[in-house]
Specification:
By secondary structure, the chain is of the alpha/beta class. It has 2 domains: 146 residues, ATPase, nucleotide binding domain (Nucleotidyltransferase, domain 5); 184 residues, Nucleotidyltransferase, domain 5 (2-Layer Sandwich), CATH 3.30.420.40. Helices cover 37% and strands 20% of the residues. The strands form 2 sheets. An 8-stranded mixed sheet has the order 5-4-3-2-1-6-8-7, with helices on both faces. Strand 4 and strand 5 form a beta hairpin. Helix 1 packs across helix 3 and helix 11 packs across helix 13. It binds adenosine monophosphate.
């Protein structure tokens, strides 16, 4: 079955066409600057050259039309006609408490997603725009929504409640939801398969370290805790997001700097994290690494604070599960930054980790990066959210 996977943001849209029978990506790319001057589509067919076409895309509907045109193009397309697309899988960021698993897209499902939009005002409306545009252009193709929050719906109450008046949970559903669920689910499953173990018997900590970053505790294949909360701002120090802070900082800094709540939120989402800690040097770990190698204190402190927060969360989740069998690193930093993995694991010897620095010099493929007799296995598992969305979609249609 050929499945189109769509990940729609407010001004961008990532896509992949996957042949689910052989789990092969036939083509992929992204549309950028939708609704803004200078929009363009990037299209890469499997085994072919990357093409960039600059073209106005005032709305997401035009962007998706351009994707469909590229896929069916006479010369560089990978399908003859749209009739070959048998299903569409959409990433949806927030499913609230409504969705504990992926769901077929129906009018009722869309209404339920709209209800959750209050909890993800930047993301859910964009996801819905993508869903509606696809429905208009491919009215008879079955579609599925795959939620970032769904995998974490198994968290117990003690993990998802904040120490706030309970009425806020009752009235507004203020609680921890967690995100990157598709990745945590995929990577925890692959970790068990890769180690040749039954996930039902395992306690796994997944470190999804990218520009957005989160850790999860997965026990018997179910998420029992994760570092992101009501929104993706909680938890680890990220590229530009602060992660955990004392909430009183909001009032303190806003008074000192004369900032509104919106401006403060912008500081926490866009100007903090390793970017903020490095004094605005960069949110990209490659730049921070270069800076640290030149003894630049900005790069050194940003990396050290990032790593330290991950180390603390791993300790917390080993405690939450009363043990850990495997730790998995994934996403942009987790997959590519050997030094981050090594520095983090250097503080985990108390768990009985015997790290393998040679094996750690790896990129791009699933690898055991601890020694064979390490008490806790450490693995690098490349995440593949699109393939996970494709699998969910096939299962439901
Ligand atoms: P993601 O959000 O998962 O796409 O991760 C993106 C981030 O991964 C970038 O902002 C970089 O910080 C990091 N990254 C990507 N490639 C490398 C690399 N070769 N070395 C270190 N960090 C990298």
């Amino acid at each position: 079955m050929k499945v189109l996977v769509i990940n729609c943001g407010s001004s961008s849209l990532k896509y992949q066409l996957i042949d689910s029978d052989v789990e092969k990506v036939l083509a992929k790319g992204l549309c950028e600057r939708i609704g803004i001057e200078g929009s363009q589509i990037v299209y890469t067919p499997a085994g072919g050259e990357k093409e960039i076409t600059v073209s106005p895309m005032p709305t997401h509907k035009q962007a998706i039309q351009m994707v469909l045109d590229a896929l069916t193009n006479d010369k560089t397309g990978v399908i003859k006609s749209l009739a070959e697309v048998e299903a569409v899988g959409h990433r949806v960021v927030h499913g609230g408490e409504e969705f504990a698993s992926s769901a077929k897209i129906t009018d009722e499902m869309i209404a339920a997603v709209e209800k959750c939009s209050d909890l993800a005002p930047l993301h859910n409306p964009a996801n819905l725009i993508g869903i509606r545009a696809c429905q208009e252009l491919m009215p008879n193709v079955p579609m599925v929504g795959v939620f970032d929050t769904a995998f974490h719906q198994t968290m117990p109450e003690k993990a998802y409640l904040y120490g706030l008046p309970y009425k806020y949970y009752e009235k507004y559903k203020v609680r921890r939801y967690g995100f990157h669920g598709t990745s945590h689910s995929y990577v925890s499953k692959r970790t068990a398969e890769f180690l040749g173990k039954n996930i039902e018997d395992m306690k796994i900590i997944v470190c999804h370290l990218g520009n957005g970053a989160s850790v999860s505790a997965v026990m018997g294949g179910k998420s029992v805790d994760t570092s992101m909360g009501l929104t993706p701002l909680e938890g680890l120090i990220m590229g530009t997001r602060s992660g955990d802070i004392d909430p009183a900082i909001m009032e303190f800094v806003s008074k000192k700097e004369n900032l509104t709540m919106d401006q403060m939120m912008n500081v926490l989402n866009k100007e903090s994290g390793v970017y903020g800690l490095s004094g605005g040097l960069s949110s990209d770990f490659r730049d921070l690494e270069d800076a640290a190698a030149k003894n630049d204190p900005a790069g050194i402190r940003a990396r050290a604070a990032f790593n330290y927060r991950v180390i603390k969360y791993i300790g917390a989740y080993a405690a939450a599960m009363n043990g850990v069998d495997a730790i998995a690193f994934t996403a942009g930093v987790g997959e590519n930054d050997a030094l981050v993995r090594e520095d983090i694991c250097a503080s985990l010897t108390y768990l009985g980790i015997d790290f393998d620095s040679e094996a750690n010099k790896v990129r791009g493929k699933e690898t055991l990066i601890s020694k064979a007799d390490s008490k806790v296995a450490v693995v690098m598992i490349p995440t593949d959210e699109e393939m996970a969305i494709c699998r969910e979609t096939v299962a439901l249609v």
